[in-house]
Amino acid sequence: MNRNVDTDRFLEWQPFLDAVRQRRPDAGTWCEAWTVRDIVIHQAGNAEELARVLGAHLEGERVDTRSFEEREGPLRAMNDSDLWDALHDRMARLNEVAEAADGIPADADVAWTGRTMKVPWFAEHMREECVLHTWDITGDDAAAQARLAERWMTTHSVIAVGKPLLRKGAELLDAGERIEARLRVPGADDLIVAAENGSVRIELTEPDGPATLETDAAARVLLLWGRRPADPSRICSSVGPETLGRVRRLLSGY
Question: For the Mycothiol-dependent maleylpyruvate isomerase metal-binding domain, which residue ranges apply (predicted)?
Fold first, then answer.
């Protein structure tokens, strides 16, 4: 297989590789309970599954999305050298499929993990995974924060992944409990997150009224994905610890 990856299409791929190379495979990360090796396994599995599902769609077929356990199990059995090769091979395959998908309507819906995604979101989702997991490895360095703060990161997190990101936290609610919060970033749309009786809502809207919490764009993306910036002063709120604690439980990520 040609192992080339178009770094104009996947701008965040090389920074992710650089971050991995700077750490030992068994080094801890900001992603709870995951080492760098675990992240590499996860990323290889992501690339493989995104390519498999989108590739099948291009062939006029529909395939179910496999679970993390199904796609990552064979990767976990590999040694570090073979795993590194597998990561590059899976990413190169996703690159090929993404290039082939350029010729089909961008608004086509493709089944993915119990929902649908638009065709361009498949490559975009891998880009987002690279941004997020690079931060997991490096922490809050300037480059990682800049990538997290890009507007498309918030938009993709909300539109393509939003409801799944809230479901884990919604399951922690007491019966009949309702949460609604307005997450504000200066100069950007507010982000509304809500959950009640197993139903979740997430949307971007114009700023209006008081915010539940205020932060910067990079930290807001981290919060959506169940993470926290190293500096807690980047998150400001006057709603009190009970309300803020409930919002943070909702934002538990996957």
Answer: 14-137
Q: How far apart are CA 47 and CA 45, in angstroms?
A: 6
* Continuous segment of H or E residues that includes residue 205: strand 199-205
What six digits make up the tokens of 148?
């997290």
Complete DSSP assignment for 39-74: HHHHHHHHHHHHHHHHHHHHTT---PPPPHHHHHHH
Separation CA 155–CA 164 (nearest Å): 14
Burial class (CB in 10 A: 0-12, 13-18, 19+), 21: exposed
pLDDT in tens, the chain (254 residues): 567 999 999 999 999 999 999 999 999 999 989 999 999 999 999 999 999 999 999 999 999 999 999 999 999 999 999 999 999 999 999 999 999 999 889 999 999 998 999 999 999 999 999 999 999 999 999 999 999 999 999 999 999 999 999 998 999 888 888 999 999 999 999 999 999 988 999 999 999 999 999 999 999 999 999 999 999 999 999 999 999 999 999 999 88
3-state class (DSSP) for residue 94? helix
- 35 neighbors 29 (Cβ within 8 angstroms): yes
Q: Is the pTM of this model over 0.90?
A: yes
CA contacts within 13 A on the Cβ side of 221: 26
Dig out the tokens for 35 from the structure. 């080492």
Going along the chain from its start, the domains and CATH numbers come out as: 12-139 (1.20.120.450), 162-251 (3.30.1050.10)
Nearest 5°: the CA angle 228, 15, 154 is: 45
Q: How buried is residue 90: exposed, middle or buried, by Cβ count under 10 Å (0-12/13-18/19+)?
A: buried
